[in-house]
Automatic annotation (TrEMBL):
Annotated protein name in UniProt: imidazole glycerol-phosphate synthase
Similarity field: Belongs to the HisA/HisF family.
Signal peptide stretch: none
Catalytic reaction equation(s): 5-[(5-phospho-1-deoxy-D-ribulos-1-ylimino)methylamino]-1-(5-phospho-beta-D-ribosyl)imidazole-4-carboxamide + L-glutamine = D-erythro-1-(imidazol-4-yl)glycerol 3-phosphate + 5-amino-1-(5-phospho-beta-D-ribosyl)imidazole-4-carboxamide + L-glutamate + H(+)
Subunit structure: Heterodimer of HisH and HisF.
EC number: 4.3.2.10
Keyword Amino-acid biosynthesis among record annotations: yes
Keyword Amino-acid biosynthesis part of the UniProt annotation: yes
Function: IGPS catalyzes the conversion of PRFAR and glutamine to IGP, AICAR and glutamate. The HisF subunit catalyzes the cyclization activity that produces IGP and AICAR from PRFAR using the ammonia provided by the HisH subunit.
EC category name: lyase
Top-rank lineage group of the source organism: Bacteria
Annotated keywords: Amino-acid biosynthesis, Histidine biosynthesis, Lyase
Organism (species): Acidovorax benzenivorans
Length: 251
């Protein structure tokens, strides 16, 4: 095992790094390039860039930001938001991304998952899931930053997506996102029990105990935004605390 991955998540709107609560009430944090370089220098294992208004405009506008980052950052970069076709995937990878995270387009046409996996490899095809709890042990997949119902059960959807070729899942718990109240461990446990690909937990990271609980639930990586962006913790802080809890993390 390579250890639990610590993955800063950068949500982008236009030229700005932003942060919200439950994907709403967005505040500008700063220049995404500066933050990406800072997290890389601090020892982040990977970076996730999400264009959070891309679905609205049906296009991903992160190319310049990704190109700048990829010139100076030598860790895997995942890019999501508005990626709807093989051409979009090709363009995003050409800009310097290593993986693409697809939500809306995969739900609209699940065949896209297999097409991306066969053309670019399963490791490149990340299924992005926005999960909202609908009852005990039940979650519905949403699109458009947790605003649009899909009617899809999250557990059935991730299983179908992996069968079609998704090589990784970026799992955002919308109810927890930006709240600092902790990851949705029940959701993580349920998804990890259904699929045999790496799962990245996103939404609600509060403190290092979350890392231990996520790891115990089978999670491969934790995407962190709020705690890092507002300077409550640094990547080295998080890794040191994780090691203190007996977790294996990359140096």
């Amino acid at each position: 095992m390579a250890g639990l991955r610590i993955i800063p998540r950068l949500d982008i709107k236009g030229p700005n790094l932003i942060k919200g609560i439950r994907l709403e009430g967005l505040r500008v944090v700063g220049d995404p390039h500066e933050f990406a370089l800072r997290y890389y220098a601090q020892g982040a294992d990977e970076l996730v860039f999400m264009d959070i208004v891309a679905s609205l405009y049906q296009r991903n506008s992160l190319s310049d930001i990704i190109r700048r980052a990829a010139d100076q950052v030598y860790i895997p970069i995942t890019v999501g938001g508005g990626i709807r076709s093989l051409d979009d995937v090709h363009h995003t990878l050409r800009s310097g991304a290593d993986k693409v995270a697809i939500n809306t387009a995969a739900i609209a046409r699940p065949e896209l998952i297999g097409e991306v996996a066969s053309r670019f490899g399963s490791q490149c095809m990340v299924l992005s899931v926005e999960a909202k709890r609908t009852g005990p042990g039940c979650w519905e997949a949403y699109t458009d930053n947790g605003r649009e119902h899909t009617g899809l059960d999250v557990l059935d959807w991730v299983a179908q997506a992996v069968d079609r070729g998704a090589g990784e899942i970026l799992l955002t718990a919308v109810d927890q996102e930006g709240t600092r109240k902790g990851l949705d461990i029940e959701l993580l446990r349920a998804v990890n029990a259904r699929v045999n690909v790496p799962v990245i937990a996103s939404g609600g990271f509060g403190d290092s105990v979350d890392l231990k609980r996520a790891s115990d639930a089978g999670t491969s990586g934790v995407a962190i935004a709020d705690a890092l962006h507002w300077g409550r913790m640094t990547v080295p802080d998080i890794k040191q605390q994780a090691r203190g809890l007996g977790l294996e993390v990359r140096l």
